[in-house]
Amino acid sequence: MRNGIWALYKGKEYEVIKHDHDNYELFTKDPDTAQVGFELDMTGYYCKHVRRNEISSVYDIRFQAIMNGLEFPVFREEDNRVLLGSELHGPDVIKHYGFVQVDRFEYEKWVDKNEIKKIEEIKIPMWGFPAPKN
Fold first, then answer.
1. Which of 111, 114, 105, 117 is nearest to 75 (CA)?
2. Cβ-contact 74, 84 below 8 angstroms
3. Which one-letter DSSP state was computed for residue 131?
4. 122 falls in which pLDDT band (50, 70, 90)?
5. How confident is the model at residue 32 (pLDDT cuts 50, 70, 90)?
6. Listed residue (35, 55, 32, 30) closest to 45, CA to CA
7. Phi, psi for residue 14 in degrees, rounded to 5
8. Residue closest to 119 by CA, chosen among 62, 49, 34
9. How far apart are CA 65 and CA 27, in angstroms?
10. Considering the chain, what is the average pLDDT of its residues?
11. Main-chain dihedrals φ then ψ at residue 101, nearest 5 degrees
12. What is d(CA 112, CA 56) in angstroms, rounded to the nearest whole number?
């Protein structure tokens, strides 16, 4: 399950960090990108510095699960289960579904995937870029 901040550059998705308003850095593990100007760094990633006008979209990828008609953020996936958060729900839902407190106002619960109706990928536009076209 991928997450984090991603950019569309020449029609392909790459992880991205922002250095300033006009300068960004793209990351990938794909060695084929060396043919299009990406350089291998000491961490094993291929990186490329690009300007803002070269990127068509930047977005934060998150996931949400639908369980019993309610939406829950998905934090992690392991084997046949997912870790759900309760941030969208109040104490009644937290108690009813058996969420465990992990920090102040933060509750989580591991749930088998067969209890989940659907997991949706959500792309939230970032840094003034438009949403990606699906």
1. 111
2. yes
3. P
4. very high
5. very high
6. 30
7. -140, 150
8. 62
9. 28
10. 93
11. -75, 130
12. 37
Identity at 2, one-letter amino acid code: R
| Whether the predicted pLDDT of 134 surpasses 70 | no
Q: Which two tokens stand for residue 62?
A: 């998150």
Cβ atoms 53, 67 nearer than 8 A: no
Tokens of 85: 């958060």
The set of residues, in sequence order, having a beta carbon less than 8 Å from that of 92 and lying 6+ positions away, is: none
Q: Is residue 25 within 8 Å of residue 51, measured between CB atoms? A: no
d(CA 120, CA 122): 6
* Rounded Cα distance, 88 and 62, in Å: 14
Say how many Å lie between the first and final Cα of the chain, rounded.
18
Longest CA–CA separation in the chain, Å: 55
| DSSP string across the chain | ---EEEEEETTEEEEEEESSSSEEEEEES-GGGGGGT-EE-TTS-EEEEEEGGGEEEEEEEEEEEEETTEEEEEEEEETTEEEEE-TTS-HHHHHHHT-EEEETTEEEEEEEGGG-SEEEEEEEE-TTPPPPP-
Please report the sign of the dihedral spanned by the C-alpha atoms of residue 8, residue 14, residue 20, residue 23: negative
